[in-house]
Specification:
The complex is a heterodimer of chains A (206) and B (298).
Chain A: E1 14-18, H1 24-33, E2 37-41, E3 52-55, H2 60-69, H3 73-81, E4 86-89, H4 91-96, E5 106-109, E6 120-124, E7 134-138, E8 143-147, E9 152-157, E10 160-166, E11 169-172, H5 183-205
Parallel strand pairs in A: 1-2, 1-3, 3-4, 4-11
Antiparallel strand pairs in A: 5-8, 6-7, 9-10, 10-11
Chain B: E1 6-7, H1 10-20, E2 24-28, H2 31-40, E3 44-47, H3 52-58, H4 67-76, E4 81-86, H5 90-98, E5 103-107, E6 128-132, H6 135-143, E7 148-151, H7 161-179, H8 185-191, H9 196-205, E8 212-213, H10 221-229, E9 235-237, H11 239-242, H12 247-259, H13 264-270, H14 283-288
Parallel strand pairs in B: 2-3, 2-9, 3-4, 4-5, 5-6, 6-7, 7-8
Helix pairs in contact in B: 2-4, 2-12, 7-9, 8-9, 10-12
The chains are: A alpha/beta (206), B alpha/beta (298).
Chain lengths: 206, 298
C-alpha cells in the first residue's frame, strides 16, 4: 500500500464527506491520495451521484443536530438503502449505530475510553489491513458495546471491538484520517469500488 | 488504559481540536447554561465564573473558576469541557488537569499571574489553547506547547473588529512566510519573533501546525460566518450568547452559521427572530482607558 504522500491514479470514484462539523478535511486528503474524488456534503443535493460516503469524527451530538437542521437524514438513508458504502469514524460510528441512523446493527458507547486525559494511540491489528499493525488514534473514543450476528468485528482493543463491518457499512472508534497510513480507508475504497462496479453491471443489464 | 498505549502525544493533543473544527465552543457559567449550549449543538463548553462582559464590568482580579462549578458542568454534559487558567499560573493549570478538564485556555480574559512567562505547556498532558493577536504570538505559544490557537479579539465587547484584525494578521502572516526562500526564514523568525523550527514548519505547510479558531467579539450569526470565511476553523463565543435576549435561539443560530458559513441564505434564515444581540462596546474608549485585554501576555 503506498503512503499518502504518493497519490495513486484517480479511480474517479466520487466519495462524499459529510462536512457539517469535525475533521472532514483530513478525510478528503486521504481519499484523494487513494484516487477518490472527495465531495464535501452540507446539503441534500450534494448526496446525488456519490459512490460512497464518509461520516467523519467530530462531536456526535452536534453532527446529529446538524444532520437534522440541514434536512440530510432522508438523503443519507437513501444512500444507505441503495447499497452505497458508508465509512463512519468515531463520532461517525456513533451516528451510524442502531440508536441513531441505524445503518449498522451495533451500539456504540460514547466516550467509553474516558475524557481527553485518557485519549491515546496504540498499534492495532486490523483484519483486511495486512500483517503490519495499524497506528490507531483514539480521541475521547467510543467502543462498540453490543453488536448483532451479522456484524464482523475486524479490530478490538483491550477486549472491546473498535472496528466493525456489516454489509456496506464500515465503522471504527479511532481516527485513521489522522495518520499517514491509508490502509483503513483502502478497505473502504475497495468496498466502494466493488459496489460501483456492481451498480454499473446492473445498469448495463437494464 | 490498555496495552502499549501512548498518551498526550502532539497528535492526541491537537486531535481533539481537530474534532472541534467547524463547531462552536460556548462560554458557560452554570451547569444549566452548559446544557443549553449542548442542546444548541455546541461542540464544547468553556467553564468560567463570569463571562468576559461581566469581568469587564465588575473589575477586580479574575481567576480560575471554582472547581465545584467545573465538576458540576462536567457532570451536566457529555461534550468536552474546557476551563481557563491565568497566563503564567501553572498551579491553576495543575488544578485543572487534576479535575480532568479536556482543554485548558491560558487566557488573557483572566488577570495575568506572570507578566513575563507563559505556562510551560509541554509539561502537561492536558492540551492547551492560547490566544494570539498576530503570527509571532501564535508561533511563540505553539513553541511553548499550545495545541490550538485562537484569535484574542477583544473579549466581552460584542465587537468583532479586533478578532477580524487578529485573524487577518495571522493568516496574512502565514501567506507571507510561505513566500520566503529557506535562507530567509531565520531573519523572519528573528523579526516575528518566534522559534525558527516552528517558522520553518509553517512556511513549508502554509498553515499553522495546530487548528486555528476565532475568539473575542462574536455576537451574531453573520459575525460567525465572517470569521469562518476569514480562515477560522471554528468559533469561540463568550458573552455573545448568554448576554443576548434569547440565548437558546442565538446559540443555535451561531452554530448553524458556523457550519453553513458559505451559504448566505442559510445565514440569513438563521439570523431571523433572534431578539436583541448583546449590547456592544466601542474599542476606542477602552483603549484610551487602557482596558484592552488583548495586550495581556504577548
Amino acid at each position: 500500500m503506498p503512503p499518502v504522500s504518493e497519490p495513486t491514479p484517480p479511480s474517479g470514484l466520487k466519495v462524499g464527506v459529510l462536512a457539517l462539523q469535525g475533521d472532514f478535511e483530513a478525510h478528503t486528503k486521504v481519499l484523494r491520495a487513494l484516487g477518490g474524488v472527495p465531495v464535501e456534503v452540507r446539503t441534500p443535493d450534494q448526496l446525488d451521484g456519490l459512490d460512497g460516503l464518509v461520516i467523519p469524527g467530530g462531536e456526535s451530538t452536534a453532527i446529529g443536530k446538524l444532520i437534522a437542521s440541514a434536512g440530510l437524514e432522508a438523503g443519507l438513508r437513501a444512500h444507505h438503502a441503495a447499497g452505497r458504502p458508508i465509512l463512519g469514524t468515531c463520532a461517525g460510528m456513533i451516528v451510524c449505530d442502531s440508536e441513531h441512523l441505524g445503518f449498522i446493527d451495533a451500539t456504540a458507547r460514547r466516550n467509553a475510553f474516558g475524557r481527553q486525559l485518557q485519549s491515546f494511540e496504540a498499534d492495532l491489528d486490523v483484519e483486511g489491513a495486512g500483517d503490519e499493525p495499524l497506528r490507531a488514534v483514539f480521541i475521547r473514543a467510543p467502543w462498540v458495546e453490543t453488536w448483532g450476528p451479522g456484524v464482523d468485528v475486524i479490530a478490538s482493543y483491550d477486549g472491546h471491538p473498535v472496528a466493525i463491518r456489516e454489509g456496506t457499512v464500515l465503522a471504527c472508534a479511532f481516527h485513521p484520517e489522522l495518520t499517514d497510513d491509508p490502509r483503513f480507508h483502502a478497505i473502504f475504497m475497495a468496498m466502494t469500488t466493488t459496489s460501483a462496479a456492481a451498480g454499473a453491471e446492473e445498469g448495463a443489464r437494464r | 488504559m490498555g496495552p502499549m498505549a501512548e498518551r498526550a502525544t502532539f497528535r492526541i493533543k491537537t486531535g481533539l481540536a481537530e474534532m472541534l473544527k467547524g463547531g462552536v465552543i460556548m462560554d458557560v457559567v452554570t451547569p444549566e447554561e452548559a446544557k443549553i449550549a449542548e442542546e444548541a449543538g455546541a461542540v464544547a463548553v468553556m467553564a468560567l465564573e463570569r463571562v468576559p462582559a461581566d469581568i469587564r464590568r465588575d473589575g477586580g482580579v479574575a481567576r480560575m473558576s471554582d472547581p465545584a462549578m467545573i465538576k458540576g458542568i462536567q457532570e451536566a454534559v457529555s461534550i468536552p469541557v474546557m476551563a481557563k487558567a491565568r497566563i503564567g499560573h501553572f498551579a491553576e493549570a495543575q488544578v485543572l488537569e487534576a479535575l480532568a478538564v479536556d482543554y485548558i485556555d491560558e487566557s488573557e480574559v483572566l488577570t495575568p499571574a506572570d507578566e513575563v512567562n507563559h505556562i510551560d505547556k509541554l509539561a502537561f498532558e492536558v492540551p492547551f489553547v492560547c490566544g494570539a493577536t498576530n503570527l509571532g504570538e501564535a508561533l511563540r505559544r505553539i513553541g511553548e506547547g499550545a495545541a490550538m490557537i485562537r484569535s484574542k479579539g477583544e473579549a466581552g465587547t460584542g465587537n468583532v473588529v479586533e478578532a477580524v484584525r487578529h485573524m487577518r494578521e495571522i493568516t496574512s502572516g502565514i501567506r507571507r512566510l510561505s513566500q520566503l526562500r529557506p535562507e530567509e526564514l531565520a531573519a523572519a523568525a528573528k523579526e516575528l519573533p518566534a522559534p525558527l523550527e516552528v517558522v520553518q514548519e509553517v512556511a513549508a505547510a502554509g498553515r499553522l501546525p495546530v487548528p486555528l479558531f476565532c475568539a473575542g467579539g462574536i455576537a451574531t450569526p453573520a459575525d460567525a460566518a465572517l470569521m469562518m470565511q476569514l480562515g477560522a476553523e471554528g468559533n469561540f463565543v463568550g458573552s455573545g450568547i448568554f448576554k443576548s435576549e434569547d440565548p437558546r435561539r442565538r446559540a443555535r443560530a451561531i452554530v448553524e452559521a458556523t457550519t453553513h458559513y458559505n451559504d448566505p441564505e442559510r445565514v440569513a434564515a438563521a439570523s431571523i427572530g433572534l431578539g436583541e444581540a448583546m449590547s456592544g462596546l466601542e474599542i476606542g474608549p477602552l483603549e484610551a482607558a487602557d482596558a484592552l485585554l488583548q495586550h495581556r501576555g504577548g
